[in-house]
């Protein structure tokens, strides 16, 4: 088929779809002159193009329709019959187009039936409008059409002038139409300007988009999926070896893959409204057929969905609308007596929620009748009386989704043809979505369809239970918690169900292994297994619960492959994927887990939801060691900085080089006192806080350890004196926060990090953290390792440095900062031409997989805990290992 | 590759044969994609017992079905080798796991007989007849019925 024809078919097809929607809308509001003109132009263009391509049959039919439309445009009253005939003509045109596509030529046949109907209607309208000059007007517009190009503007002019002439010549107009011409003229004139303006704009708009065949997009999609798989394989390999030279390029590859994938996914997204196009007309026809008054409201049509998904939901939506119209909405009289407005309303609403697109189909009809469902279920042998008695109303209503069910007592021609809600549900589940009856009552019914946003690629957390690995979608994972009394989160029981105490709230627990039938024991824990398990905190809707697993690996981007049809009924899994090492693992459906949890104290769960959310926004809690040294003032130091608490027998303390030292685990550990002239007492034991830097220990001698607490740390008073970072209120007492680096810095300074290669110049680092405490803590460490260090107290300060022209070899940044946070800063840096290539390391006290993902997405190459100095130093070493050689 | 071959006298039909629990089974040649050794099988919890698991074959996920379980035969001894017959159906890949693979046989329709009336019902569900071989019997496995677990709407 030649390209021109091909183009024509696609474009005209789209125009006809648009016409459908517009006509129905226009019928509801016949005074919408703009709509009317739009419709007229559409029909006109179709006619013009058909004429141009020599498609006679189509041109004739389109022309007849255009004539009638022209009448309406000029003020004739719009009748239901008229619109129906035009709609029927559009259908006929679609048929002819289909034939054209198949054969390459127009199918032979006669449209005399429609053409006659159209012409008659046109004549009647014209007669009513201007008393008999319709013939002339028809000729004029037909001639104008013969001039033959698809442009809009010249035509409007030509026919208008003819019309005005004819109008003026027409005898004695009625008072009502007399008011019309003036407004029509100005409207038409305005319309012209609008059209020419629009024409121009349209041209520009068209130039910015490109038609891409659906197959090409599909192909791109699968290719990108394979790319993601291969990248995962590479990541896996690199993770296992120590080839750091691959790490950098691999990170770049990873970032590029993510971008490519996002771009393709966006290209495939279309507004949901595309699936809704045919529905207004459907509702119109249903209302006519059933003798009911129904209006369709659609909101959120701009919400975007993947193209493939859109195709898949068209039929289910159509069926659900039919159901609502046929069984839901009552006859007008019934509605009046029920106190409802005579016109029934069906509402389609689409919006995005979490990782899903939600589409609601709501009608304000009579609702589902539980009794009827009962009887039908019984009649169709789907259940027994005994079973029914045990069920709640909500459960009984679920029967509508079972195959072989239909409450239409008379199988109506409209619906109830045996294509039941089970088929609807099946089709939606095929694309990984769910459909449920949310509510029903004499005031109406609501169905909810949920469709996962990205079909193919998602981020998941890999966990292991009973030796088998599974993937849990990242968006449902809130955090990871080590359970057990030792970890501070003891497992408790409420009436034999296990819950986890998490930050003073209770979280219901699920034993994953038992749930899958992989382990013995009930689906809720046995007491003996309380210790040392990891709970994955999962959120489904407003519910939070913990899933007990043996091991947690990492988050990974996985390509979702749909479940085999043989396994589709297993609700626990929503798909499967191939990991980087080639093994196939199942993907868990969080909703199935949510159902398994049951209704364990849902009130508490909701309350938890609030608190868990707010906890995340709360201040970080720091574990602090409280002690006294040299005075009665309470002092504190972050617990995580301390390697060990020791009590050194004083006779082990020796003097060497004017420094107290002690032999400690095979190394010589210097002892430092907080007061310069202090010496160890002659006998007894000396409590020592041992700090380590790269395997070299240093001990800080203190008087006594007071307590270990976990409190939010906020330094209230910045200190002037060296050795103290500031003062804070800890549990209602004033506490001095000690600057460890002041005391131990001198000791550590004299050592260099082993294995650090000399490079041509010292490497420049930029450390960004809003907390002076952390800057002070990390700075000496970094300097002692031979890095040149610059500090910034905020993202803004860092960016100011960039503007000043400063350059760095690596940037370490805190994530949680007031003002611009680390993620936004990373995005800025990555977008900058000067700084865009500088590696970024993220620091934070949280380590939720979600945050790790977010920071990776923002451009951070690594993610290190704030107190994890070892990892930080090793990470830095890794980055710069090759530099000495390269430089 | 054609499933049929004209042997001069009668057109013969091709079958891929496998042996399981001492019985020879034949699958129509034109339904079989390949034969492979199942490796890296991941079990699927909560799946029907006939589903042995999922495996990765050159980047595609294959659903493995255990023929023994499908026919109600005792399970294979641990450690005994197995072989899988690769089938594609409605765009999905399946592997039917049997004990051993045999030859491809070209059989004359005259050697064909319908299922004996006393055949075990579980077998009768998935078998569509028997061919008389030289000193042996080959039971024909109907591929569609083997894959039908009731998921396509029909009663299992």
Produce a short descriptive summary.
The complex is a heterodimer of chains A (887) and B (156). By secondary structure, chain A is an alpha+beta fold. Chain A contains 28 helices and 35 strands.
Which residues of chain A form runs of ≥5 with pLDDT under 50?
Answer: 131-158, 172-206, 408-418, 521-525, 599-619, 751-760, 883-887
The low-confidence runs of chain B, each spanning 5 or more residues with pLDDT under 50, are 152-156
What oligomerization state is this entry in? Answer: heterodimer
Count of strand segments of chain B:
12
Helix content of chain B: 10-25%
Computed over alpha carbons, the radius of gyration of chain A is: 37 Å
Give, in order, the helices and strands of chain B: EEEEEEHEEEEHEEH
Tell me the distance between the termini of chain B: 32 Å
Report strand % of chain B: over 45%
Briefly note the structural class of the backbone of chain A.
alpha+beta
Mean pLDDT of chain A: 75
Main sheet attributes: strand count, strand direction, barrel closure of chain B:
7 strands, mixed
Biggest sheet features of chain A? 6 strands, mixed
DSSP strand tally of chain A? 35
| Largest interchain contact | A-B, 24 and 25 residues
Main sheet of chain A: which strands, in order across? 10-14-15-13-12-11
Number of helical segments of chain A? 28
Q: What's the helix count of chain B?
A: 3
What does this structure look like?
The complex is a heterodimer of chains A (887) and B (156). By secondary structure, chain A is of the alpha+beta class. In chain A, 44% of the residues lie in helices and 25% in strands. Chain A contains 28 helices and 35 strands. In chain A, the strands form seven sheets. A six-stranded mixed beta sheet of chain A has the order 10-14-15-13-12-11. In chain A, strands 27-19-20-30-29-28 form a six-stranded mixed beta sheet, covered by helices on one side. In chain A, strands 21-25-26-24-23-22 form a six-stranded mixed beta sheet, with helices on one face. Mean pLDDT of chain A is 75; it is low at 131-158, 172-206, 408-418, 521-525, 599-619, 751-760 and 883-887. Chain B has helices at 67-71, 121-126, 143-147; strands spanning 4-6, 11-20, 23-28, 32-36, 51-57, 60-66, 83-89, 92-98, 100-107, 112-113, 127-133, 136-141. In chain B, the strands form two sheets. In chain B, strands 1, 2, 3, 9, 10, 11 and 12 form a seven-stranded mixed beta sheet that branches. In chain B, strands 4-7-8-6-5 form a five-stranded mixed beta sheet. In chain B, a hairpin with a 2-residue loop joins strand 5 (51-57) and strand 6.
